[in-house]
Amino acid sequence: MNSCTKNISLPIDPNSEKSSNSSISIKNLYNGDLIFVGAQIEELSGAINRVTQISEKRNYDHIGLIEITNDSIFVLHAAPFGGSQREEINHFYHSQTEKNNKIVIYRLKAEFQHTIPDAIITAKSMLGKSYNWEYILNDETLYCSDFIERSFRKDSIFELIPMNFTNPKTGKIDDFWIEFYRKKNLNVPQDEPGTNPNQLAESEKLQEIGSLLILKK
């Protein structure tokens, strides 16, 4: 057990204000926080962000849910490697930042904090499911934002939206996704229901807390 996950102190006020440009430490995390991973420019990460980015300020391609226990912090998330899993936060953080990805924490506003215990229970009930490489909703495989939306579905925190695979620069289906689905012998699921990290980050039920900084021991 990494020593920095012990004797965790939690912020008293889940609605405490933070600058979106500020850095926070592991001690500032709150049970039920959402952890977002910044998108890369190329390959799958870039392709996801290219067709889902809503604002210049936010460009994410992954999301997880923070669970805090007596002596540890975990990230509950659905990832390409390992599927739906419960990952110790230091391992999660350093595996992401080795790729120079920015890690940003968001928090449910005070009036929605009561939904967190059930969301964590639901998230843990989905652990072990395989990753959904087709990004077409089903009950057996999950992708990251699908995992989070389902975790909070009981309380309607997030919503399904029509998926978009259109490149905003061309107004046409992005070439990456045409080839991606061609290899799977599938049509691009344009306008099928789904979610994405950038959409969830724009929710008015969330507030951005700051960038997470965890130093290596």
UniProtKB/TrEMBL annotation:
Domain of life: Bacteria
InterPro entries per record: Papain-like_cys_pep_sf, Peptidase_C92
Stretch list, region Disordered: 1-22
Protein name: Permuted papain-like amidase enzyme, YaeF/YiiX, C92 family
Organism, as annotated: Faecalibacter macacae
Lineage of origin: Bacteria, Pseudomonadati, Bacteroidota, Flavobacteriia, Flavobacteriales
